[in-house]
Amino acid sequence: MDKRIESPDVGIQAIHDGAMILMGGFGLCGIPENLISAVRRKGIRNLTIVSNNAGVDDFGIGILLQNRQVKKMVSTYVGENKLFEQLVFQGELEIELNPQGTFAERLRAGGAGIPAFYTPTGYGTVVAEGKETREFDGRMFVLERGIRGQFAFIKAWKGDRWGNLVYRKTAGNFNAMMATAADYVIAEVEQLVDLGELDPNHIHTPGIYVNAIFQGSNYEKRIERRKIRIAV
Amino acid sequence: MNQDQKYERIAARIAKELRDGYYVNLGIGIPTQVANFVPSGMDVILQSENGMLGIGPYPAESEVDADMINAGKETVTELKGTCYFSSVDSFAMIRGGHIDLTVLGALQVDEQGNLANWAIPGKMLKGMGGAMDLVAGAKRVFIAMEHATRDKAAKIVSKCTLPLTGVKVVDYIVTELAVIQVTPEGLLLKELAPDTTVAYVQSLTEPQLILPGKGPELMLL
């Protein structure tokens, strides 16, 4: 078995206008930089993107917003992106905001064959509007749906040709859930290693979830808020 | 008091609630500063909802690592004993009741302990991030905020008018002037800062505050 592909551009060949794509990352940490650039190059439009954040004005998903390729975002936090706010207020971009834990669980459920689940999060708030609620053990819960996408873009630290993946530090975030929740999953890794090099005890995403893998290049790994300890 | 001094006082007061072995999630802004006041010798494990338990201090220039950030997207360091995990595990900890204490900022808190802290319709679009899950799942919810807005409008109100983060979720409100407990009867003025009066605090608070029998205690600082 060999899931390696030549380039991100090969990986996204099957993606057309109107597709729904899950993209890993928290802020700019652990985002699929190479695949996002390939989508920008290909110019496909009307995309629905499921991602915790929307990048910044000129990096990450921001470069797809700049190019007006996105129709709808499903996210949890979209502050710090002026263009995003402007597009939403002008009615050019649809936004569905989810509580972050609900968002993570919706992806986990989608990937695990669970169509819906009850959560206490958001009960009595705008996110519960129009949703079923139910009492369990004296407390109220909201019914939330699992999410499945057509495509998922995953960023990992290391991977092998069977698609086994290992994430690094907080760059894992939503990648592991998203890798389970789409029909076609493309992983970009900083290091593509030989089979057997990854410690089988420490695989985060088993290869069964991954359809295609490539080693990315020119990672910028931009830092949103560089905070430095003041020496005393 | 300037703004920094107000924030320090709020953070220092909340830090008095910390206990050895607590798992704590601190929100962005004033709440983050609570970490500066953890008493020495006490192990308080900070959780970051992007997948980290055991947040260390900000890095030295040479330690900066783009793969190591907190939920405010700031660079951080790890400690001996730090662990990383996925977002779904992170929120299992949060929603599952494993976090002892969370500290969050607020736009409004009301008499019933309802909280609004994520949106101002037509003006500010940010999103709730992890706040709705934190208030739904943490064992205790503390609000750290300035008592009123810059133009002295009440942030502690009879009924929140902004989009809610959670219903009946707040346990305590800590401001530069007071410590207020949310009780079934209403808002109890537990502690008063040394440089203010009950009348002044009440004038910046929309609902009527309840006074303890012996009056409020001096704020623990």
Classify the secondary structure makeup of chain A into a structural class: alpha/beta
Q: Oligomeric status of the shown chains?
A: heterodimer
The rounded distance between the terminal residues' Cα atoms of chain A is 55 Å
Helix content of chain A: 10-25%
Average pLDDT reading of chain A: 97
DSSP summary: helix tally of chain B: 5
Structural class based on helices, strands and sheet pairing of chain B: alpha/beta
Radius of gyration of chain A, in angstroms, nearest whole number: 18 Å
- Stretches with pLDDT under 50, minimum 5 residues of chain A: none
Largest sheet features of chain B: 10 strands, mixed
Structure description:
The complex is a heterodimer of chains A (232) and B (221). Chain A has helices at 8-11, 33-42, 62-66, 82-89, 100-111, 175-178; strands spanning 20-23, 47-50, 70-75, 94-97, 116-119, 133-136, 139-145, 149-159, 165-166, 182-192, 212-215. By secondary structure, chain A is of the alpha/beta class. In chain A, the strands form 2 sheets. In chain A, strands 1, 2, 3, 4, 8, 9, 10 and 11 form an 8-stranded mixed β-sheet that branches. Helix content of chain B is 18%, strand content 26%. Chain B has 5 helices and 15 strands. In chain B, a hairpin with a 3-residue loop joins strand 12 and strand 13 (178-183). In chain B, helix 3 (87-95) runs parallel beside helix 4 (131-137). The longest helix of chain B is centred in the first third of the chain and has 13 residues, at 3-15. At the A-B interface, helix 4, helix 5 and helix 6 of A face helix 3 and helix 4 of B.
